[in-house]
């Protein structure tokens, strides 16, 4: 009986997969190739091992007791290897099912009962895998995800307080949450607008809205001498005005919702303003 199963078991035990990508590093991007290479290999190992073991068991009389005290038997080893793959995939219930089957093998089990247990394990694996959900992120926006320097190192150095909102703005847009991305961009702009007002001596910038600050900065810029520094100030003011227009509503009172495309466009405009501002303060 063991000789009948040995080729099947030896073939499958020679295969192995690594640590589950999304268990080892949750909330990180996993590319399609890596997903296929890992999960497909693990699932194929589980599925083929169980299927081939069931086929081999059907060659044995259904009522024959198998492997008393067989914890170390070849079938037990294969079932344990299936359990390891289930653990790598984070299939907790399936691992418990494997433990029950291993216990039955150790105590002695008839062929038909073991086949039924293997069928139930196969079904449990499939049901449990169906509870795991994966989000597809278009490659064109994946470059926005989890970027610590989305606006460049100079902006990071000059405005460390915006780091959280900058990363989250990119994450939200990458994940298709346009309105949430705009929320974080607004928080970034609050910091930038106030720093711009400070640079030009606008008083009480914390108590003014964008339009007031923009009006006063324009007056201050007109009073400056016509030199390269003034040109940069004018460019920053123009960039600020572009961001204001992009919100298409009263300054600091944006519309209810934003598409991903609108939010992606705003990322570019806010980046331009913050980059220009970082160069003059």
Overall description:
It is built from 13 helices and two strands, in the order H-H-H-E-H-H-E-H-H-H-H-H-H-H-H. The chain is mostly helical. The protein has two domains: 129 residues; 142 residues, no CATH class. A two-stranded antiparallel sheet has the order 1-2. Helix 9 runs antiparallel to helix 13 and helix 10 packs parallel to helix 13. The protein is rod-shaped, with a radius of gyration of 31 Å. The termini are far apart.
**Strand fraction band?**
under 5%
| Head-to-tail CA distance between termini | 81 Å
The total strand number stands at: 2
Instruction: Enumerate how many helices there are, as a single number.
Output: 13
Determine Rg (CA atoms, Å).
31 Å
Strand order of the largest sheet: 1-2
How is the main sheet built? 2 strands, antiparallel
Q: List segments where confidence is low: pLDDT < 50 over at least 5 consecutive residues.
A: 1-6
- Quickly give the structural class: mainly alpha
The percentage helix is 55-70%
Assembly state (oligomeric)? single chain
What general form does the structure show? rod-shaped
Number of domains: 2
Q: What's the pLDDT, averaged over the residues?
A: 81
Please write the string of helix (H) and strand (E) elements: HHHEHHEHHHHHHHH
